[in-house]
Design a protein that fits this description.
Oligomer: homodimer
Distance between the termini of chain A: 46 Å
Number of helices of chain A: 13
Largest sheet of chain A: 6 strands, parallel
Number of strands of chain A: 16
Strand content of chain A: 15-25%
Chain lengths: 443, 443
C-alpha cells in the first residue's frame, strides 16, 4: 500500500504501511516455557518474534544492499541515532521523508537513543541532569544531547520503534554509582516519554505531502476512511477504544517508544528500574547495560531477574547481544527482540558463524577447501562460493569479502531465530530449543 | 549442461558448456559501416558483441557479487593473470577446478597475459629475450615470467580466452625503442602460440574427474558422443574439418588464444605488428599499448589504422579502454571487445557515469537530492536509491557505496553496449550510433 510520501521520485518505493488497526502492539501466538512466539505490529511491518535485528549504524547494514537483506528475511533493522544525527544530520533525513525513504527500507526500523554512543564514542565534556555535552568523534564539533533532543532527532528519523534516552552504566560499577546512574536514566525516561507523546505525530511519514510537520494538527486532513493514509493500531494510545471511529491523531500509524532498564549488575536496582519504568507505561521495555564486559553467566542472570518485573503483554528487548547460542538462550527466557553488531562486524574480520562452529575464513587451512562455508546453510553465499574463494577474498582485502561474509553471518543469525520460532510453534513435541544445537566452538 | 567437474560440492554450480560444435569462433550477424554485431562462441558462453568486459582483477569484480553481475547482463569478465599467479596462486586455482569454479562464474572469462602488470606494478629486475624477472608488488618475492610461463599459468586458470605474453610499449617511446619492443613482443607471441597449441587441453575443465592433467592425451577417454563432455567448435584448429568425426583432442571445448598488436603510436610499426601476428594465425587479435597516456585522437587513429590489417572474420579486442563515449566510438570502428577498469575504479571514488554526464556523487549539491543517480537508468541502484543516500554512503566511507556505485556504472556501460548492438541490428534506418548521445561532460 502506498504511503503518503510516495511521490514517485524513487521508482517502486512504497512506504508500505501495515494496516491492522485493532491489533495490539504485541500479539502473542504461543508460549513454550518462558519463551513466546508473537507478532509485533509496527507501522511498516508485522515482525515475527523472537527476532534478531541486524545493525545498520549509518542507515546501512555495512556492505549489504537492502534487497539482499530482504531476501534473507531481515524484518527490522536498527539504526544509530548518534551516527545519523552527526552525519548526514537528522534534518536532512527528515527533509527526505525520513529514514525509511532515505535508506530505501520500507520495512520496520528501530533507532537507539544515542546515549550508548555518546558515552562510548564521543569525547564527553559534561554530564548534567539536563543532558550530555559532547564532542563528535568525527570532527570534534560540540553537541548537546538530552532526552528531549534525542526524541526530537528520533522523530525526525521516524523509525517504527524509538528508545528512551539513557545512561549506559559502565561495568564494573559500584552500587552507589549504579544507583545514581539509574536515577538519572529514570528521570530521562520520563522526559523522553513526555516529549514523545507531545510530538509523536511529527514523524516524517505522518506528514501528508505538501504539508509541513506540525500542520497536520491544525486539522488539514483528508477524510479518515477515504484518505490515502492507512492506519495501524500499533500505538493503542492514539486509538479511541470506545468507538470504531479513529481520533484525528490516529489517522496515520504511530511509532512506539521503549524504556530502557538499567541498574548495573545489581538485581534490586534492576527490579527498581523495571518497576518504575513500567509505571510510566512504555510501549515496550529494553534491558540495557549488558554486553559491557561482564561474564556471560551474569548477563543471563540479569536478563532472567529483570524479565520477572516486565509485563508479559509487551515486547521485551535485550540490547547488544549476542553470540548465536546466546540469542537462542535469551529467546528461551522470553526475550522478543535482540540486536548485535557481532554477525556483521565479525564478518568483516573474516569470522563466520556456522553450524559446525566458528570459522576464521582467513586460516591457511581453507586455502584449497572447495566446500561451502557452512554445508548445512541454505544462504546464497553457501550455495555459490567455496571456503577457498572466501579465504582468497578476505586475505586479498577484497571488498566482496565483507559483503559475502556478512550475508552468510546474517543468514545464520536470522535462520537461527527462525528455528527458535519454529520450535516454539511446534511446542514441546517439536524440536526443543536445546536440540537447536548452536555449536560455538572453533570449527 | 553440467561440466565434467560438476561434483556437487558447490550446490547448483555447473560449468555450463556451450555446445555448438560447428560454429566459427566469431559469427557475424550484421554490419553497419565498419561496425559489426556478432556472436563469439566460447566454451562457456555465447557472447554477443560488441561487448564490454568488466574487470575482475583478483577473480572478483571489486565489490560486486557474481549474481548481480549476471543480473546486469555481464557476459564475460576479465581476470588478471599477474594478480592471480601471485595470490592465491594458479596451482591453487587449478586444483580447485580452474577459475570458473574458483570464482563461481560459469560464464565466459578472459585472462590477460600478466605482461602489462609486470611492467606497471612490479619491480622489474631484468628483461631478457627469455622473459622478465620481477619482484612481487605484494611482498617483494622474486618471480620470472616468460611466454611459456604466462600461458602455463593461464591454462591453469582456464579462461575461455587467453592472451599472448607481450611487452606493453610505454608512451612516449622513440621509434627505435618501439620497434625493438615490437620485435620482442612478436617473438613472445610465437612462443606463446607454440606453448598454447602444445598444452591447450590442460585447462582444468578439460580434465575428466579422476584423471590428472595430461592423462587425457593417453587416450583414457569416454566415447565421443556418449561421453559427458560436450564439445564446442570454438577452437577450429582442434576439429578435423575433413569429417564429422571429432579428433580425440576435440572431445572437450577448447580455449582461444589472442595475439596482441604493439608498435607504439607508429602506424607502420602497428601494420608490421598486425601483419606478422596474422601470419601466425591467432584465434583473435588485440590492440595493446593504448590508454597509456597518449591523447585521445591518437588512440582512435592507432585503432583505426591497425584494424585495417586485422582479419574481418576474427574477433578484435582493444585493451584498456575507455570512457562510455569511447567504447561507442571504437565499436563503430569495428572493435568487438573492450575492457576497462574505469567504471569500477571510478565508482569506488564516487564518480558515476550517467545519461546526463559525469556525476561526482560526493558533491555537496547532492546532499538532499531525492532523485535517482540517473533518471534515465533502469539499473537496480537507480530504481531504489537516491543521490542523497549514495552521497551519504560515499562521504561516510561506507562499503555499500562501492557496491552500489559499481553496480550503476557497470549497468551504464553494459547498457551502452547493448544499445550499440541494437543500433547495428536496426541498421541505418534505426538509431545511428551518433544518436546514442553519450554525454560525457560533468552533469
Amino acid at each position: 500500500m502506498a504511503g503518503p510520501q510516495d511521490d514517485g521520485l524513487l521508482g517502486g518505493f512504497e512506504l508500505n504501511f501495515y494496516n491492522d488497526r485493532m491489533a495490539p502492539l504485541l500479539e502473542i501466538h504461543q508460549q513454550q516455557g518462558a519463551a513466546r512466539r508473537a507478532t509485533l505490529h509496527l507501522p511498516h511491518a508485522k515482525v515475527e518474534t523472537p527476532v534478531f535485528m541486524p545493525v545498520g549504524t549509518a542507515a546501512t547494514v555495512k556492505a549489504v544492499p537492502q534487497d539482499v537483506l530482504e531476501s534473507l528475511g531481515a524484518q527490522i533493522v536498527l539504526a544509530n541515532t548518534y551516527h545519523l544525527y552527526l552525519r548526514p544530520g537528522h534534518e536532512v533525513i527528515r527533509s527526505l521523508g525520513g529514514l525509511h525513504r532515505f535508506m530505501s527500507w520500507p520495512h520496520a526500523l528501530l533507532t537507539d537513543s544515542g546515549g550508548y554512543q555518546v558515552f562510548s564514542l564521543s569525547n564527553i565534556r559534561k554530564v548534567t541532569p539536563e543532558g550530555v555535552e559532547f564532542r563528535s568523534h568525527l570532527d570534534g564539533s560540540k553537541h548537546f544531547l538530552s532526552p528531549e533532543r534525542s526524541i526530537e532527532i528520533q522523530l525526525a528519523l521516524g523509525a517504527d520503534v524509538m528508545m528512551a534516552f539513557d545512561e549506559c552504566t559502565e561495568y564494573p560499577a559500584e552500587y552507589a554509582r549504579a544507583k545514581q546512574s539509574l536515577e538519572l536514566t529514570l528521570d530521562w525516561a520520563r522526559r523522553s516519554l513526555d516529549y514523545f507523546h507531545a510530538h509523536l505525530h511529527e514523524v516524517p511519514w505522518a506528514v501528508p505531502q505538501g504539508l509541513k510537520p506540525g500542520q497536520f494538527l491544525a486539522g488539514e486532513w483528508p477524510a479518515v476512511n477515504g484518505g490515502p493514509y492507512p492506519v495501524s493500531g500499533a500505538q493503542s494510545s492514539v486509538l479511541n477504544p470506545e468507538s470504531a471511529v479513529l481520533s484525528p491523531e490516529s489517522r496515520v500509524p504511530s511509532p512506539s517508544l521503549f524504556g530502557i532498564v538499567q541498574g548495573g549488575m545489581y538485581p534490586d536496582l534492576r527490579r527498581e528500574s523495571a518497576e518504575r519504568l513500567v509505571e510510566m507505561d512504555f510501549d515496550g521495555y529494553a534491558i540495557g547495560g549488558l554486553s559491557v564486559g561482564e561474564p556471560r553467566h551474569l548477563t543471563r542472570e540479569v536478563i532472567e531477574r529483570t524479565l520477572e518485573f516486565l509485563p508479559k503483554d509487551k515486547p521485551r528487548y535485550v540490547m547488544g547481544v549476542g553470540y548465536p547460542d546466546e540469542i537462542v538462550e535469551y529467546a528461551q527466557l522470553g526475550v522478543d527482540m535482540m540486536d548485535c553488531v557481532l554477525p556483521t562486524r565479525a564478518a568483516r574480520h573474516g569470522l563466520l558463524f556456522t553450524s559446525q562452529g566458528r570459522v576464521n575464513i582467513k586460516n591457511k587451512q581453507y586455502a584449497e577447501d572447495p566446500n561451502p562455508p557452512d554445508p548445512a546453510c541454505a544462504c546464497p553465499v553457501c550455495g555459490r562460493y567455496s571456503r577457498a574463494y572466501l579465504r582468497h577474498l578476505a586475505t586479498s582485502g577484497e571488498p566482496l569479502a565483507a559483503t559475502l561474509n556478512t550475508i552468510h553471518n546474517l543468514a545464520f543469525y536470522l535462520d537461527t531465530m527462525r528455528r527458535v520460532r519454529d520450535s516454539i510453534r511446534q511446542g514441546p513435541q517439536g524440536n526443543s530449543p536445546p536440540s537447536l544445537n548452536v555449536e560455538m566452538a572453533d570449527a
